[in-house]
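Methods, example record. To illustrate the input and output format used throughout this study, we show the complete record for 4-deoxy-L-threo-5-hexosulose-uronate ketol-isomerase. The sequence lines were provided to the predictor; the line carrying C-alpha cells was produced by it.
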Amino acid sequence: MEIRFQNSPKETSQMNTQELRSNFLVQNLLVNDEVKLVYSHYDRVIIGGAKPVTKPLKLENHPELRAEYFLERREIGIINVGGTGQVEADGQTFDLEKLSCVYLGKGTKDVTFKSNSLADPAVFYLLSAPAHQTYPAARMTKDEASPGTMGAQETANQRTIYRYIHLDGLKSCQLVMGLTILNTGSVWNTMPAHTHTRRMEAYFYFDVPEEHRVVHFMGEPQETRHLLVANQEAIISPPWSIHSGCGTASYGFIWGMAGENLVYSDMDAVPISGIR
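The corresponding predicted structure is encoded as:
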C-alpha cells in the first residue's frame, strides 16, 4: 500500500509537472489479478482498485493500518466499472453489474472480489475512510441511485449525476460516493467549480477512450494547476483545491468524499470569472 502525505497550497503552487503528478495523480490502480491501494493523509482516505481476472482477490490487511483486518476501523464503498462480478463480504454475496455500488461497514472481516467472465472481468474501484460506527452492508444499482441531470449542451457540460452513498442513500459514517456520466458532446465536469475545506475528494476517471485524455484542474481558485489524466486513473483532491475537468471526448468519473459531514451540497462555489 502506497502512502502519500499532505501538501500545502503554497508548496503545491511551486511544483513542476512531475511533482504534481507524483503527489496527486494515481496511476496503475487496475492491474490484472491484484488489489492496489493508495493511503492518502487527506482525511486518511484509501483509494484502491481490484481487477480479478483469473482468480478471486481478497482485500488483505496492511501493517500500516495497525489493525487486525482491513475494515476493523474503516468503511468502504465499491463501484464496478467493468463486467459483471461479485463482492463477497462475511458470507454475503453482492452481484454488481457495471456502475452498481456496494457499501461495507466497519467490522466487516472478509472481503473477496470475483469476476463472472474471463473475457470481460469486473473492475472494482474502492474508496475507504475511517469509521466510528457500523452501518449495514448494502447494494445499489445505477437506476436506484437518484439520477439527476445538470448542465447544458450550450456550455458543453450536460451530465447525469448518480448518488450512491449519501444522507438519503446508502448509509455511512463519513463516506459520500457517486458518479457522473457526461452526455455525448459534453466534456466539462464540475464547472463552475467549487471547494469544500471540510472534506477531501477523489476523482476516478473511466470510459475515457484510449487515445483521449481529461485535463483535470486543481489548486486554489486563484492559483490553479492542471494534470492530464488517462482512463482508469484517479486524482487526490485536497480540501482547499478546486476539482474540475475537461476531456477531449465524453467520459465518466466516480467522485468520493470524506471529512466533516455527509452533506453532498456542502460546497463553496467559485465563479468562473474568479478562477486564475
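Annotations derived from this record:
The chain has one domain: 2-274.
Residues 43 and 259 are 6 Å apart (CA to CA).
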